[in-house]
Amino acid sequence: MFEYNDEYFMQQALREANYAFEKDEVPVGAVIVINNKIIARGHNQVELLSDATAHAEIIAITSACSYLGAKYLTDAALYVTLEPCLMCCGAIYWSKIGRIVFGASDPKNGYHHITKDNWPFHPKTELVMGILEDECAKLIKDFFKAKR
């Protein structure tokens, strides 16, 4: 029997990131999971929508809330290929997502100041970092390398 785990769901987020890459968007992907079921997917659509807020996390959160008919996602896990930025941390906080799993760190734009004293998420939120980090980082690096 197949066992779902963090690597499996991060691979699904990477699929979303690849969709963004193919559309010439910064390749970030996200999925939201409840009870081992993906209920929402998202990838960056900033260029397509001409909207600076159209990050993968925001699109996935909006989709998940619509799917559930609820504004809180306390039982959900968000898998995202890149460390969330400050804007996305705010959306994650307000939606009360129970668990965040990200792949690659983002020293330039990520909210990498995460400490117990500077926790940007809901107090009950769990954070897991570095799942499939190399694969997630490679996709971002390849995208920006091609742009130079």
Structure write-up:
Helix 3 (56-68) packs parallel to helix 4 (86-95). This protein has five helices and five strands. 40% of the residues lie in helices and 20% in strands. The protein is of the alpha/beta class.
Shape, per Cα inertia axes: globular
Distance between the termini: 45 Å
The overall pLDDT, averaged over residues, is 92
> Which regions contain 5 or more consecutive residues with pLDDT less than 50?
none
Q: What is the total tally of β strands?
A: 5
Oligomer: single chain
Please give the radius of gyration in angstroms.
Answer: 14 Å
**Secondary-structure element series:** HEEHHEHEEH
Q: What structural category characterises the helix and strand content? A: alpha/beta
Number of helices: 5
Supply the key terms.
single chain, alpha/beta, five-stranded mixed sheet, 5 helices, 5 strands
How do you describe this structure in short?
It is built from five helices and five strands. The chain is α/β, with parallel strands linked by helices and 148 residues long.
Helices and strands in order:
Elements: H1 6-22, E1 29-34, E2 37-43, H2 46-49, H3 56-68, E3 77-82, H4 86-95, E4 99-104, E5 126-129, H5 133-147
Helix pairs in contact: 1-5, 3-4
